[in-house]
Specification:
Elements (H helix, E strand, L loop, with lengths): L8 E2 L8 E4 L1 H7 L3 H5 L3 E2 L4 E6 L4 E6 L2 H5 L3 H4 L10 H11 L3 H4 L2 E7 L2 E12 L2 E8 L11 H14 L3 H16 L3 E7 L5 E8 L10 E2 L6 H9 L2 E4 L7 E4 L2 E2 L4 E2 L12 H10 L3 E9 L2 E10 L7 H24 L2 H20 L3 H8 L2 H4 L5 E6 L2 E6 L4 H14 L4 E4 L2 H4 L7 H4 L1 E8 L4 E7 L4 E6 L4 E5 L5 E3 L7 E6 L8 H68 L5 H32 L4 E5 H15 L5 E5 L5 E5 H17 L6 E9 L4 E8 L32 H11 L3 E7 L3 E9 L3
Parallel strand pairs: 28-30
Antiparallel strand pairs: 1-25, 2-24, 3-13, 4-5, 4-8, 5-13, 6-7, 7-8, 9-10, 9-17, 10-11, 12-16, 14-15, 16-17, 18-19, 18-22, 20-21, 21-22, 23-26, 24-25, 27-29, 30-31, 31-33, 32-33
Helix pairs in contact: 7-8, 7-11, 8-11, 12-13, 12-18, 18-19, 20-21, 21-22
The protein binds adenosine-5'-diphosphate (ADP).
């Protein structure tokens, strides 16, 4: 639209076709634009330019048209002092102003005696390239606004701008007002997209000319160097594309021996290529004003005229000022775009946050949210990946496709949020499910636990209306050099864009982030609840500790006393006691002994819960052989057989505690067995995981189904105290506790009267 550079010649030996298509990147990386844009070596003809050397203000370079404007030929100015043109008070004024800020001093009004007549000029001064540059523009336009009227001229527009609700309204006001002030045939707002292409988003024009509203322009229509200049020099005017190029004399800045840097100049010459571009567009006069958002070039106010169009300096200042005012309002007006949608989004987001705050756990959150999860980001499908399972809402890819996508994502994303509106382009397998997921938004909730939410959007094949075919043509000249050509045709050219979804808007992405923040709240709340429970547990554990201490120490002492005194009584007075009295004393000894056994078992059990496990890889074959020997030795009167499978797997665990487990189980297998040939079998089964199932099988009395849970409860026995050699009813409770502390499981199968098998699931590795 503005400064296209088309005629930079590219050296090429390889190009053999007449016309080739280049990508924007190729073009940008191949051409050195800088030379062309800020140092064109010439100025436009609607003013004259003098270059002064400080401190004396000697004229060291001039534009070749000085005679036309100042009535003095260039050779009479060159190497002279500025005194030859200006009066001393004018020079003093310039000198004084140079110390200040150029934005405040420009333009300096100068009346200059040119031959017999006195002419009035707007002199625009700036310092650059180690010199002072004076640009003289005639100031004869009587309709030119005086700066005292500036306030009145801009105030109504500023009021309107302030009242505008959204970007659309803001742009509409600006194009209208600028056109009213300047009288251009067409005034447009041209917005740069993230890929640097541009789009006309507002337009005010003469009724009889065709509309450009909605047209897109390729990125290289405003190449990067032109954007750079727009970032520092906010207004550019080209009154007449056919005006004569005015060269500078001498060609180079004598102080640098390089072409003069005209980046800040108002008369700066235009690249021939851009002139050709404007010509092809049917434009004779143009003006462009930069629009910035948060310090970055956001777009342009582009003005076109089919005939010559000069805008006075003061009017230009008004337009530039309005451009600045608009720039200030862009961020907030952009935020107000789609206000209704945003309000709906916000209200659903707060409902979701309420659900989250009232939910106990993540699964409940996800179950209760339902399709609201889609609304908060404007998606058509979502999947929650939680504990290895996929909870799907409406339209999503298949489980296998999600797994593959997640694997791809894990290597790709390093932030906790990721979004794309063209998934099939960057991840080709997504072409298979483009109707569901051409757009993807991923919010990582907890990396370690692998909790993710994936939102999807379907493909929307969009039609982009380009102002002419955006592909880049190159022509090869007869000498073999390449020439980039301005587009000759601006006839609308439609492109169908595939594999894209509607873009994720910033506020939608923020919806996903807020969702995470609220969810993290729940996780944190859960953690703090757990911490509280832990604290309480610790407290009750320590109370239990003191209890077991009392039980083991304080209770055991008098108990031992009772036991000892009963024994003494039996020994010393047994003979004088009646049979009945003796039997009572024997019961007393037996009961106190049993009570001590119970207290010791309780003590052992309570310690078991808190003691640190001392884990290592354990050879189960050796462990069971040892335990078997001990059990055999402890039951010399009982005959039984232990059959152990060969090559039992290695188990990762606490050796002493696992010995306790197998000792209890083998003891019980022998104890609760009335058969003459008592057999205990020990074997294992493999599992899918790195765990093994070990079993201890007997041919004993069996356990009825209704008792199969009870037997694991502390102090629970199924038989009278005297039956099967007695016991405390703690053995299996301890076994279960040890297995659970190893992260394992215990269960049993039994046929009453035939035998019982206990199964233990234990891990082979850490
Ligand atoms: P204890 O053996 O000291 O009574 P346990 O906790 O080891 O305590 O066992 C609880 C009860 O489970 C036992 O009293 C017994 O009735 C039953 N039991 C344990 N193992 C077996 C088994 N292999 N066969 C039949 N019953 C069993």
């Amino acid at each position: 639209m503005s400064c296209g550079i088309w005629d930079k010649k590219l050296e090429s030996n390889k190009m053999d076709s007449k016309e080739e298509i280049l990508t924007t990147e190729t073009v940008n990386s191949t051409i050195d634009y800088n030379e062309q844009i800020h140092i064109p070596g010439w100025i436009q003809s609607h003013g004259a330019l003098l270059v002064l050397q400080e401190p004396d203000f000697d004229i060291i370079q001039v534009s070749s048209n000085t005679e036309e404007w100042l009535n003095i030929p260039p050779e009479n100015l060159l190497r002279q002092n500025i005194k030859c043109l200006l009066e001393s008070h004018q020079i003093d004024n310039i000198r004084k102003n140079l110390a200040g800020d150029f934005e405040y001093i420009n333009p300096v009004k100068l009346s200059i005696k040119c031959g017999n007549e006195v002419k009035l000029f707007n002199c625009i001064i700036h310092r650059n390239d180690r010199v002072v540059i004076l640009e003289f523009e005639p100031s004869e336009d009587k309709s030119e606004p005086d700066f005292s009227q500036f306030y009145q001229l801009t105030l109504p527009t500023i009021n309107r701008i302030q009242k505008s609700v959204n970007l659309h309204e803001l742009c509409a006001i600006i194009v209208k007002e600028i056109r009213k002030i300047t009288g251009f045939d067409r005034v447009m707002i041209y917005k740069f997209h993230s890929d640097d292409s541009g789009e006309v988003i507002a337009e005010d024009k003469r009724e009889d000319i065709e509309a450009y509203l909605g047209l897109h322009y390729p990125a290289y229509d405003v190449p990067q160097p032109a954007r750079d200049i727009f970032s520092v020099n906010y207004l550019r005017i080209i009154p007449n594309i056919n005006s004569q190029a005015v060269e500078l004399i001498p060609k180079n800045n004598p102080l640098t021996n390089q072409p003069l840097d005209l980046s800040f100049s108002v008369l700066r010459g235009v690249s021939y290529c851009h002139l050709e571009y404007l010509h092809n567009m049917g434009v004779m006069g143009s003006m462009s004003i930069s629009l910035a958002k948060e310090g970055k070039l956001w777009g342009l106010i582009a003005c076109h005229h089919q005939s010559v169009k000069y805008i006075s300096y003061n009017k230009r200042v008004v337009c530039e000022f309005l451009g600045q005012v608009m720039s200030i309002h862009i961020p907030i007006r952009e935020q107000n775009d789609n206000l209704d949608y945003k309000v709906t989004l916000k209200s659903v987001q707060s409902e979701v946050i309420k659900i989250i705050s009232e939910s106990e756990d993540l699964l409940t959150v996800f179950r209760n949210i339902g399709s609201k999860l889609l609304t908060i980001v404007g998606a058509t499908g979502a999947v929650i990946c939680l504990e290895g399972a996929y909870h799907k809402i409406e339209k999503t890819p298949s489980d296998a496709e999600i797994t593959a996508l997640l694997n791809w994502l894990k290597n790709r994303i390093d932030t906790d949020i990721y979004s794309t509106d063209s998934l099939p382009i960057i991840y080709p397998p997504a072409k298979e499910f483009k109707e569901i997921a051409s757009g993807l938004l991923v919010q990582e909730i907890a990396k370690v636990q692998e909790i993710y939410v994936l939102w999807f959007r379907p493909e929307v094949s969009q039609t982009v209306n380009w102002a002419g075919n955006p592909e880049y043509p190159i022509e090869i000249e007869s000498d073999g050099t390449m020439k980039l050509c301005p587009r000759k045709s601006f006839v609308e050219w439609q492109e169908i864009v595939q594999f894209h979804s509607l873009p994720w808007q910033l506020y939608e992405i923020q919806g996903a982030q807020e969702f995470k923040t609220a969810i993290v709240g729940i996780i944190m709340r859960r953690i703090s609840e757990l911490a509280k429970i832990n604290l309480e547990l610790e407290k009750s554990n320590s109370e239990l500790d003191s209890f077991t201490y009392i039980a083991s120490h304080d209770l055991k002492e008098p108990l031992r006393g009772i036991h000892n005194y009963s024994t003494f009584l039996m020994e010393d007075y047994g003979e004088i006691l009646q049979q009945d009295g003796r039997e009572k004393l024997e019961t007393l000894v037996r009961l106190s002994q049993r009570m001590e056994d119970l207290i010791n078992a309780l003590l052992f059990f309570s310690r078991l819960g808190r003691q640190e496990l001392d884990k290592s890889a354990i050879n189960l074959n050796e462990l069971i052989a040892n335990v078997g020997e001990v059990v055999m030795a402890s039951k010399p009167d009982v005959s039984f057989e232990i059959r152990k499978m060969d090559n039992l797997p290695a188990i990762y665990g606490d050796k002493i505690l696992l010995e306790q487990v197998f000792s209890n189980l083998i003891n019980n297998a022998v104890k609760y067995n009335k058969k003459d040939a008592k057999i205990v079998e020990i074997g294992y089964k493999e599992t899918d995981e790195s765990a093994s199932i070990i079993y201890v099988k007997d041919n004993g009395i069996g356990i009825r189904e209704k008792h199969q849970e009870t037997i694991f409860k502390i102090f629970k026995r199924l038989h009278g105290q005297d039956k099967y050699g007695g016991g405390t009813g703690v053995g299996l409770t301890i076994v279960k506790k040890i297995i659970e502390r190893h992260g394992g499981q215990i269960w049993l199968e039994s046929n009453y009267g035939e035998g019982t098998t206990f199964y233990l699931k234990l891990w082979n590795q850490e």
